[in-house]
Amino acid sequence: MATLESTVDKTASTVVPLHPLLARRWSSRAFDPDHEVTDEQLAALLEAARWAPSASNTQPWRFAVTRRGTAEHAAVLDTLAAGNQVWARAASALVVVAARTTGADGAAQPWAVYDAGQAVAHLSVQAQAEGLAVHQIGGFDRDRLIAVLAADDVVPLVVIAVGLRDEPARLAEPFAQRETAARVRLPVGDLLLPVRVRQEG
């Protein structure tokens, strides 16, 4: 059986050392179709997300967890773009991430989407610690996914494929090639914004 360590090494090439959980995290599309994620692992992922920071502690994130082989998993899979279905069907679980963008009082929660993103970041690092891979999927039919969720007060943001990383050779092209391609990021200098300072007088 494939393991997280036995597959392609795509450790980030960084200017300064990063924690291995961050440096070794990457978004795999190759998932072991025989792997089953445990209740304890799923609980750890959700617990990590639960303890993410949020504006005024509003905790706007919501999750729908579906396991491969269930009707719920099939329903979520069916909302994905066809190209994503090809590889995401092998994932042990598909987790829908949604946000409550209004509070119980009806007031807007303008930071809800940002906060939900922080929760997913926590989840992805915890997955790495659990020996699991995750791939966040933005290609889905929003209206169909809303219809699948048994909640009318949330906005679906992303679907996360969770499972054990597998060998790229099992993937069809072009996905197999993408799996082994080098990871690329802009240099930090390109990400920095200047700050205007108002001159007095």
Automatic annotation (TrEMBL):
Identification of the protein by name: Nitroreductase family protein
Keyword Oxidoreductase: yes
This protein's UniProt keywords: Oxidoreductase
Family to which this protein belongs: Belongs to the nitroreductase family.
Keyword Membrane carried by entry: no
Provenance organism: Lentzea kristufekii
Every Nitroreductase domain range: 23-79, 82-163
Domain of life: Bacteria
Cross-referenced Gene3D superfamilies: NADH Oxidase (3.40.109.10)
UniProt-listed SUPFAM superfamilies: FMN-dependent nitroreductase-like
